[in-house]
Amino acid sequence: MDFIRPVSDLRNNFADISKTVHETAQPVFLTKNGYGDMVVMSMEAFEKLQFESEVYFKLKEAEREAELTDKRFSSKDVLKAMKDAIHG
């Protein structure tokens, strides 16, 4: 469910908007003169979104790399390489 409020609510009802973004983990869309202007979200929701974007970007990079080569690794090879990297 989208939460859409006029930008004036940011000044007049800040506590309510803050409560909404923290309790729902959803952004609040603010409008100015009937048009979208800003988005307000909790720090936790922003950090989650940022993390998911980074993961998505890295997966897209891996897919592009996979298209350029036929080299593949088994799960055992990957696990061994990870253990070797961790333990030096």
Coarse morphology: elongated
Q: Compute the number of strand runs.
A: 3
Radius of gyration: 21 Å
User: Helix fraction?
Assistant: 55-70%
**How would you characterize the largest beta sheet?**
3 strands, mixed
Measured distance between first and last alpha carbons: 49 Å
Strand content: 15-25%
Give start-end ranges of low-pLDDT stretches: none
Mean pLDDT: 94
- Cross-sheet strand order for the largest sheet: 1-2-3
Characterization of the model:
- The chain is α+β, with helices and mostly antiparallel strands and 88 residues long.
- 62% of the residues lie in helices and 17% in strands.
- It contains four helices and three strands; from the N terminus they run E-H-H-E-E-H-H.
- A three-stranded mixed sheet has the order 1-2-3.
- Strand 2 and strand 3 form a beta hairpin.
- The mean pLDDT is 94.
Concise overview:
Helices cover 62% and strands 17% of the residues. With 88 residues, it is of the alpha+beta class.
Which properties best describe this structure?
single chain, elongated, three-stranded mixed beta sheet, alpha+beta, 3 strands, 88 residues
How is the secondary structure organized here?
Layout: E1 3-6, H1 8-12, H2 14-24, E2 28-32, E3 35-40, H3 43-68, H4 75-87
Parallel strand pairs: 1-2
Antiparallel strand pairs: 2-3
